[in-house]
């Protein structure tokens, strides 16, 4: 059987069909066509029946969406722009049918040194994703390897196509994950499984990723983006303010002890009682009607 390293090198030699703005063809695939603002390495679109979902497609198909710095600068800008847009309820990051992102751009980092990494703050652009206040959904088809897997884990929810592959193969090129792979992965799948993935560089398929808790749901390839948009739209039916507070509370579970986390949760819970949306939500429930939340 070919090694993971051989497979990875083979993958990097393949081309992928590039698509842009969203439409659904009669085959069920969602296609993309370029739209403003223009980027070189990503494409963006506002989708959903209410046009309240920000969609970002990684767009380096010949490199299987390898995560170079220019791509991440653009990705960070797009995420921040959607986060600041009051009309956007949630954000989706996706790739194409072949690859979500097959890892970092090895050629770009090959000549880096410890000194240059430290001085330049290598990978600091990734913080723009984790700092986003709105929910981010990773819609993963194809390969999510190395930095691609780490990018998916930066998101709040991961939906996967049935042919998706996840992995942290950095060990094969003499380094380790550097954007959260050794820290987030154990929190999601446990120490033993994370050790196995990181120390072997082996890939895991979508079904196993779902079983271990890395992925929320698995769908047919052609249904993945459609289902991800439905999820984002469902989130968009709730109060934007309360959604943001709920995201903060859940994320706190990974940053602190259980006791401190419970205290934080309680403070956020109490805080919802100072909002008009909490009052509207409970009033609507009692009055048996749909709530009307403020878009702020």
Automatic annotation (TrEMBL):
Its EC number is 4.2.1.17. Coiled coil: none annotated. It is an enzyme of class 4 (lyase). Keywords: Fatty acid metabolism, Lipid metabolism, Lyase. The keyword Membrane does not apply. The keyword Lipid metabolism applies. It comes from the Eukaryota. One of its GO terms (molecular function) is enoyl-CoA hydratase activity. CDD domains: crotonase-like. InterPro entries: Enoyl-CoA_hyd/isom_CS (IPR018376), Enoyl-CoA_hydra/iso (IPR001753). GO terms for cellular component: mitochondrion. GO terms for biological process: fatty acid beta-oxidation. PANTHER family: ENOYL-COA HYDRATASE, MITOCHONDRIAL (PTHR11941:SF54), ENOYL-COA HYDRATASE-RELATED (PTHR11941). Belongs to the enoyl-CoA hydratase/isomerase family. This is Probable enoyl-CoA hydratase, mitochondrial. It comes from Parnassius apollo.
């Amino acid at each position: 059987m070919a090694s993971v390293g051989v497979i990875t090198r083979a993958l990097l030699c393949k081309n992928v069909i590039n698509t842009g703005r969203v439409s659904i063809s009669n085959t069920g695939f969602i296609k993309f066509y370029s739209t403003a603002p223009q980027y070189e390495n990503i494409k963006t679109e506002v989708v959903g029946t209410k046009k309240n979902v920000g969609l970002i497609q990684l767009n380096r198909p010949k490199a299987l969406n390898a995560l170079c710095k220019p791509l991440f600068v653009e990705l960070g800008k797009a995420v921040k722009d959607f986060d600041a847009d009051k009309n956007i309820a949630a954000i989706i990051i996706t790739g194409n049918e072949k690859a979500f992102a097959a890892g970092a751009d090895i050629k770009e980092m090959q000549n880096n040194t410890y000194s240059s990494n430290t001085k330049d703050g290598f990978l600091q652009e990734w913080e723009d994703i984790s700092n986003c206040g709105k929910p981010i959904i990773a819609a993963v088809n194809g390969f999510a390897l190395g930095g691609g897997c780490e990018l998916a884990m930066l998101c709040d929810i991961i939906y996967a196509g049935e042919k998706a592959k996840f992995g942290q193969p950095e060990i094969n090129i003499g380094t380790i994950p550097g954007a959260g792979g050794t820290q987030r992965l154990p929190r999601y799948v446990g120490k033993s499984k994370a050790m196995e993935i990181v120390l072997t560089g082996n890939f895991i398929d979508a079904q196993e990723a779902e079983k271990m808790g890395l992925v929320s749901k698995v769908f047919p390839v052609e249904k993945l983006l459609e289902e991800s948009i439905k999820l984002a739209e469902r989130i968009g039916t709730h109060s934007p303010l309360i959604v943001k507070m709920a995201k903060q509370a859940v994320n706190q579970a990974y940053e602190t002890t259980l006791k401190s986390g419970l205290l934080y949760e309680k403070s956020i819970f109490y805080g919802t009682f100072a909002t008009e949306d909490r009052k509207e939500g409970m009033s609507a429930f009692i009055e048996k009607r749909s709530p009307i939340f403020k878009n702020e």
